Amino acid sequence: MAMEEIQQQVAAAKEAALTAIENASNVTQLEQLKPDVLGKKSPLRQLMRLLKDLSAEERPAAGALINEAVAEVEQRFESRLTLLRDQELERRLALEKVDVTLPPPHRCAGSLHPLTLTLNEIVRIFVSMGYEVATGPDIETEYHNFDALNILPDHPARDMHDTFFLAPGVILRTHTSPVQIRYMKSHRPPIAIIAPGRVYRVDDVDATHSPVFHQVEGLLVDKHVSFAHLKGTLTEFLHAMFGRDLATRFRPSYFPFTEPSAEVDVQCFICRGKSSECRICKGTGWIEVLGSGMVHPNVLENVGLNPREVSGFAFGLGVERFAMLRYGIPNIRCFYENDIRFLSQFRARV
């Protein structure tokens, strides 16, 4: 293939690309056009394949010619994109222009976020039962987040795939349990606290997961605290939250910081266990809502308490999960999008 033929094809491909760019009438059309004029499979870039048919002396000049054409198309593309964006902005501003001679629009009353509403209700219930609210830092040490809670160095939760590490030994807390550790170090029993707050875990965003979400964890430590106290406390809380006519159940489970441990379920308040097609309980009749257990003796020793003299129970729940159940929200992303159409539905619940 002769150099002249390459030059003709480059000129033709460049002209076709520039014409297509100029004919795009809006940003969407132009962005959809980009793969065809600048992508790896665009006619202009495909000409690079023809270089192998040229002599060694001609290849550098032909390659430079193609690269210059690509650069010109890229420059024209960006210029056209800027122009179209400016035009769309001008049209939008013209449509949204405010006539200052008109009376001001009616101001709608604000409302609390559904997560705030749910958290406030959870806090209200536990405060009415004698609990205090405790808080702690979002940036934590590995010791307070893991070691003091009997989570061993080889536990999967300590892997970088699950935890945000900011520096050696420093992380974004994966639960609000470190608040309990700090509180037990600075206070003596009897202790009855809840620890609400943001927590962080490496997770992909989907309908039920987010890398940032909210938890409420609780702790009670005193002399002669038993599993019966744990069961009575959480049953009372769930009845106050979801209704006193709903049954609860405790299933054996495992958590490093409690022994024995239990998952807590509440009877499905949609189907009451009578529908195999219920989207909430998946036909089981039960909804998992809490993790709980008796505080592990190692945890008590780590904060300077004698497990032979005092005992305690702990529990944890996800605020987003409770809000989704309470309001029938199917997607956790709704909480974070700041969509006024969604948020305004909760105005009457303030």
From TrEMBL:
Name the domain of life this protein comes from. Answer: Bacteria
Gene Ontology MF terms: ATP binding; magnesium ion binding; phenylalanine-tRNA ligase activity; tRNA binding
Enumerate the UniProt keywords alphabetically. Aminoacyl-tRNA synthetase, ATP-binding, Cytoplasm, Ligase, Magnesium, Metal-binding, Nucleotide-binding, Protein biosynthesis
Task: Describe the location of the Aminoacyl-transfer RNA synthetases class-II family profile domain by residue ranges.
Answer: 122-345
Is Magnesium set as a keyword in this record? yes
Enumerate the cofactors the protein uses: Mg(2+)
Mind naming one GO cellular-component term on file for this protein?
cytoplasm
Where along this sequence does the record place binding of Mg(2+)? E259
Biological process terms in GO annotation: phenylalanyl-tRNA aminoacylation
**What reaction is this protein's catalytic activity?**
tRNA(Phe) + L-phenylalanine + ATP = L-phenylalanyl-tRNA(Phe) + AMP + diphosphate + H(+)
Pfam hit, one: tRNA-synt_2d
**What does the entry's cofactor note say about binding and number?**
Binds 2 magnesium ions per tetramer.
* Record keyword Nucleotide-binding present: yes
Q: Where in the cell is it found?
A: Cytoplasm
Its EC number(s): 6.1.1.20
UniProt-listed InterPro entries: aa-tRNA-synth_II, aa-tRNA-synth_II/BPL/LPL, Phe-tRNA-synth_IIc_asu, Phe-tRNA_ligase_II_N, Phe_tRNA_ligase_alpha1_bac, Phenylalanyl-tRNA_Synthase, tRNA-bd_arm
Provide the family line. Answer: Belongs to the class-II aminoacyl-tRNA synthetase family. Phe-tRNA synthetase alpha subunit type 1 subfamily.
Per UniProt, subunit arrangement is: Tetramer of two alpha and two beta subunits.
Its name, as the record gives it, is: Phenylalanine--tRNA ligase alpha subunit
Species of origin reads: Sumerlaea chitinivorans
